[in-house]
Structure formats: structure tokens, C-alpha cells
Task: inverse folding
């Protein structure tokens, strides 16, 4: 078995952290009522193909998550309650996207902080937390349901771009693939595993640079880091970026950084 084989990455991502008895299910209203929806692999695979052909088609990410990820959301919420600040965070149930849309608050964050880097990132890339939220609502009326699991799903969605800042992965094709693998390690969401495996499979022919090893390192970094969904993000945003990375055990993305920026989008070629 070759170390850079996309098929090996696929097997590793699916087997390492997802016991079949606890396999993730769709994030739908039935999950909120304690029922277990069926996995919709066909829909997820169709959405994966569309996503790999257009990384900007963010709606396909949410389609995949709805098809495969529900159990991870519920388990993540209950894990949050076991953390030192989790009970308070869950009790307050802050809608973080609203705070991220507050320009005055963002502008108040000190230079060199996580929040300052996030502020520059979203303004340079012309992104917004509400824009991401709107995409997540497409074909999914339950996203804004007043339920703890739905709230935790929104919280997971809203911190995605902050994870770009913390991990050092940019929005190029390879950076997104690496962050997806990191996210699977953090959340155990089967949808993240599918996207990461699909990206690795597409990248398997790229021999000029260590694309697949960079994606695998993303997963390993996610395993080694502190659990980011248990963080108090309002406080984290004011923390110096490098100090936050050190505290959260976020090692540098050495393999990703070693690949020239111009080659990163070509790491996930489109199908003919």
C-alpha cells in the first residue's frame, strides 16, 4: 500500500473514528426527536461529485452533511456539556453568526488577535457568517429550529472560517481539503470523512507535490489539537493568534505550507 494512495486515505478516514454501530446519520428533524434517519449515500455521493467539480458550490457541503452527519451533532452537543465552559455556553445558546456580523465588535478586536485575522480574512475574501448561514438554509427549513442539537449544528457551521484562521489553511482547493480532514478528526462527522476521502482520491495522480500527505496531515492535526467546538469563541477571538494556536495544540501545517500557492488549487482536478 502506497503512503500517498487516495484509496488508503479513504479507508483510514472511514475506519479510524467511526464505529459502524455509531455511524453518523442525517441532520434532520427526526434526529432532534431521538429517531435515527437512514444514511443517504446516493445523495451524498452525487453532491460530492458536484462539490469536487466546483469547490465554491458550498451548498453541496450542507447537502452531504444533511445526508450523513446527524449523530455527530448530537454527540458533539453532549460532549460540550462535559467541558469546563460547556454548560454555560449551552445555557446561553448564543447565535454566534449574529456576533460575527457585528462590524463594530469585529473592529474592536486587537491587532494580532484571532479576531483581527478573521476580520481581514472575511473582508479580503468577501465572505460573511450570514452568507454561509443562508446557504445552509437552502432545502433545509429545520436549520433554525429552536432545539439544542440544531443550535450546536449552527455553532459548528459558524466557526468554520475561524478554523481556517486557526489551522492556517487557506481557501484554495487543497486548503479546503485539509480543513475538511481536520474537521472530521474534530467532529467525527461522516460527511467530512466522505469529502476528505473524495478530495484525496481526486488528488492521487498529483505526483509533483505531497497533496495527499498534506490532507492526511490535516486529519492528524485535528486529532492532536484540543477540541475546538468546546471553546468560548467570544474570548478566543480576542486572544493573540499564535498564543491561541499554541494553547490549542495546533501544530504548523508544514506539508501544506511546503506546496506553492499556485499549485494548491490544482491539487483537486475536476473530472472530465
Result:
Amino acid at each position: 500500500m502506497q503512503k500517498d494512495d487516495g484509496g488508503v486515505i479513504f479507508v483510514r478516514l472511514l475506519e479510524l473514528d467511526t464505529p459502524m454501530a455509531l455511524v453518523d446519520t442525517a441532520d434532520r428533524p427526526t434526529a432532534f426527536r431521538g429517531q435515527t434517519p437512514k444514511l443517504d449515500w446516493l445523495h451524498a455521493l452525487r453532491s460530492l461529485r458536484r462539490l469536487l467539480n466546483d469547490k465554491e458550490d458550498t451548498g453541496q457541503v450542507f447537502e452531504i452533511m444533511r445526508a450523513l452527519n446527524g449523530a455527530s451533532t448530537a454527540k458533539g452537543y453532549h460532549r460540550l456539556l462535559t467541558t469546563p465552559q460547556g454548560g454555560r455556553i449551552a445555557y446561553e445558546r448564543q447565535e454566534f453568526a449574529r456576533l460575527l456580523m457585528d462590524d463594530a465588535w469585529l473592529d474592536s478586536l486587537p491587532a494580532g488577535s484571532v479576531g483581527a485575522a478573521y476580520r481581514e480574512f472575511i473582508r479580503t475574501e468577501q465572505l460573511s457568517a450570514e452568507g454561509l448561514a443562508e446557504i445552509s438554509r437552502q432545502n433545509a427549513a429545520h436549520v433554525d429550529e429552536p432545539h439544542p442539537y440544531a443550535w450546536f449544528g449552527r455553532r459548528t457551521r459558524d466557526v468554520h472560517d475561524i478554523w481556517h484562521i486557526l489551522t492556517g489553511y487557506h481557501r484554495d482547493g487543497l486548503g479546503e481539503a485539509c480543513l475538511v480532514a481536520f474537521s472530521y478528526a474534530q467532529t467525527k462527522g461522516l460527511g467530512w470523512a466522505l469529502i476528505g476521502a473524495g478530495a484525496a482520491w481526486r488528488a492521487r495522480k498529483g505526483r509533483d507535490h505531497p497533496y495527499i500527505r498534506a490532507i492526511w496531515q490535516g486529519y492528524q492535526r485535528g486529532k492532536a489539537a484540543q477540541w475546538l467546538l468546546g471553546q468560548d469563541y467570544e474570548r478566543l477571538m480576542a486572544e493573540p493568534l499564535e498564543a491561541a494556536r499554541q494553547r490549542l495544540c495546533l501544530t504548523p501545517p508544514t506539508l501544506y505550507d511546503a506546496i506553492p500557492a499556485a499549485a494548491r488549487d490544482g491539487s483537486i482536478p475536476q473530472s472530465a
User: Anything to note?
Assistant: The two ends are 27 Å apart (CA to CA).
